[in-house]
């Protein structure tokens, strides 16, 4: 089978909500990383086959097929098309999968892939977190098929995060300790310059704004997001933020044609579903499935990036997979570094690739929980 290679991976800084990137139009935020991607590599811009971007809540400044509009706003050629993907939190990881599949099928040779989200301008509301699109009623209301299968069980991330914590026996203090370590790792990574190669500064922002010098005492003083879920606070949840990220995925033919040096090979890609009421547990079985398909064990994986939607999600995954926490989200996760929804998949992949290069690791695995009880898994081999 033909192979798909990652030649470059970059991202914007993560702007905190109402922070340094809050005023940047979503199209321009996406254009920023696309322009940098093209400028950093030796492929004529009009020879890109496609642009595939992830984005959630494609309304307002994020509407209108932002993959295409961001490419054009970057001043890049009119002949290159673009398409926008929504697999909820896994949107840009799915965009990477689509790009790799296009290359592996032999139908495309050069694909710009990534994602963008401006959560300051298009906020995720409590309705959205409960599984309801912004501005609309409960999407499950009135569906006889859904009601027949799932009844009135809540499709709610906070409910799921609390349910996971109780099922696996994690108390609030344990989750707060996990969250504090995420911030500690992120701050240490920034201080050591671990993100410097992957970040393309924008609007005077050159580093991630979201990590905090917090304490367990401060976390313990926070009120729950909802009294029904007493262990789930802002401290143990991913941060809303503004960011974009982009990757260059090419074929072996393109490597030779343009004299490119591949940095990683797509070793495996898959996506699986799980119970939508549990909502956030899919990475567990999806990872097991991916390792079986790839003929690997967790011991073969040098680094893991799993999205910290909530502390309980990653803690349950680590327990079930028996994977070393010291090799998981080693530079911090979304609790500290933010979860810009549609951009997170590409953002995590940029960090994973650079971390493998920094440490000399061979295999990296990326996964995340996604709306509807889904999870993508990507395994890359550093070259």
From TrEMBL:
Q: What is its EC number?
A: 2.3.1.9
**CDD domains, from UniProt?**
thiolase
For this UniProt entry, the molecular function terms from Gene Ontology, in alphabetical order, are:
acetyl-CoA C-acetyltransferase activity
Coiled-coil spans are: none
Q: What class of enzyme is it?
A: transferase
PROSITE patterns membership: THIOLASE_2 (PS00737)
Thiolase C-terminal domain span:
261-382
What are the UniProt keywords, alphabetically?
Answer: Acyltransferase, Transferase
Source domain of life is Bacteria
> Boundaries of each Thiolase N-terminal domain copy?
5-252
Any one Pfam family match given in the protein's UniProt record, by short name: Thiolase_N
Q: Which residues form the active site?
A: 89, 339, 369
Concerning its family, UniProt says: Belongs to the thiolase-like superfamily. Thiolase family.
Protein name per UniProt = Acetyl-CoA acetyltransferase
Organism (species): Pseudomonas flexibilis
